Amino acid sequence: MRQEILTIAVAVLPLLGVVLGHRLSRSWQREQWLLDQRVKEFRELLDALAEDLRVATTMHVDPLLWPTMNLPQAVVDAHSNAMRVMQSRIFIVKDLIRVKMEERWSIAVDLHRRTMQIEPLARTFTELRILIVNAARQNVPRPWFKRILDWRKSKRQLK
């Protein structure tokens, strides 16, 4: 009887190890994919805000280009694109709501349109860029051994 149990254990344990390894690998791959998607969305948002600022800054550099470049429409288009990007995020929507990104950028753009001062818009962009970069770097995956140590620590705290 013991020999049969030992034979079954020798046959089943490697299979359980393979299944467990597969589950851990899939879990890590999914977490990595989600983090990659967050970084991608943050990068797209930062690109859209930078383009909006670039177009607004161009207005101040050479207003004589407006008739040929149709720059005021370009400003409207750049701001519309920045707002579209903010409103279409899936993985970072909570971060954007938490820092009131859409509201802050809209206020800065509206102030720029009324006063034609670039400094408040540039300052808001810098503040939002710092928030975006910090949020994108926030969820870096931990190595597997740190996860095990954190898991063991949480188990001890429950006791």
Describe the fold and architecture:
With 159 residues, the chain is mostly helical. 87% of the residues lie in helices and 0% in strands. α1 (2-61) runs antiparallel to α6 (118-138) and α5 (101-115) runs antiparallel to α6 (118-138). The mean pLDDT is 82. It has seven helices and no strands. It starts with a helix and ends with a helix. The protein has a domain at 38-143. The protein has helices at residues 2-61, 66-69, 71-87, 93-98, 101-115, 118-138, 144-158. The longest helix is centred in the first third of the chain and has 60 residues, at 2-61.
Which terms would index this structure?
159 residues, 7 helices
Q: What is the element layout, followed by pairings?
A:
Elements (H helix, E strand, L loop, with lengths): L1 H60 L4 H4 L1 H17 L5 H6 L2 H15 L2 H21 L5 H15 L1
Helix pairs in contact: 1-3, 1-6, 3-5, 5-6
In short:
The protein has a domain at 38-143.
Which percent range describes the beta-strand content?
under 5%
**SSE pattern, N- to C-terminal:** HHHHHHH
Contiguous low-pLDDT stretches (5 residues minimum) are none
Query: What is the oligomer described by this structure?
Result: single chain
Looking at the structure, what is the overall shape?
elongated
Average residue pLDDT: 82
The percentage helix is over 70%
**Total strand count, please?**
0
